[in-house]
Design a protein that fits this description.
Order of helices and strands: HHEEHEEEHEEEEEEH
Distance between the termini: 59 Å
Strand order of the largest sheet: 2-4-9-6-7
Structural class: mainly beta
Strand content: 35-45%
Shape: elongated
Number of strands: 11
Largest sheet: 5 strands, antiparallel
Helix content: 10-25%
Number of helices: 5
Length: 197
């Protein structure tokens, strides 16, 4: 097979063959930093054994299940003003059916009393990671004390909701350090410190 025919074959692959966004991989590669562990998490309601621990356990098999009227809320409160670049939510319609969120709102503020809506998204049978990029007024990553994820409606008019994972990412700050070559350090004075005893 020639190189050009290989390239043609790749470009004709269906869109499902495109690699799906994986926040765990992005974290491992150092492109984003997970800051959800610096926050206090609370839920509007949950069934026993299906709470915050399951929402944050890094497993796509476990989930938070709400237990009450809509909207279903996830509150993420930081101790200090925190830069947030994106929120990633894992949802799977094939497994959760009527428990799958249909309309999701992301809100931010300093407390419960001044939350403002940043984005509302209609989801159509989602399966995989949903990425909500968060921007402040000056088009920079958002700086906030409080994030709220609100599930406004579910698919098929479901009452309770399932959410399998939530990741909160901050940008990785690149601080360049220039290192100028100082010398070769081959003098007698320097070589006496070359090894440890």
């Amino acid at each position: 097979m020639s190189f050009s025919s290989f390239i043609d074959m790749i470009t004709m692959l269906p869109s499902e063959a495109v690699e799906e966004y994986d926040p765990y991989k992005e974290e491992r590669l150092g492109r984003v930093r997970e800051v959800g562990n610096q926050a206090v998490w609370s839920l509007s309601t949950c069934k026993p054994g299906f709470g915050v621990d399951q929402l944050r356990d890094l497993s796509l098999e476990t989930y938070w299940q709400s237990d009450g009227p809509q909207p279903h809320l996830i509150n993420i409160q930081f101790k200090r003003k925190t830069t947030v670049q994106q929120v990633c939510i894992y949802s799977d319609f094939k497994q959760d059916e009527s428990y799958t969120p249909n309309r999701v709102s992301i809100r931010a503020g300093t407390s419960f009393h001044d939350l403002r809506e940043l984005e509302v998204r209609e989801l159509s049978e989602p399966s995989g990671w949903l990425v909500f990029a968060l921007r402040g007024a000056d088009d920079r990553p958002l700086r906030t004390y409080h994030l709220q994820i609100a599930v406004i409606t579910n698919h098929q008019n479901g009452r309770d909701t399932h959410m399998r994972q939530v990741r909160v990412h901050a940008p990785v700050e690149q601080r360049g350090v220039t290192v100028q070559p100082v010398g070769s350090f081959v003098s007698v004075e320097c070589s006496q410190y070359a090894c440890l005893r």
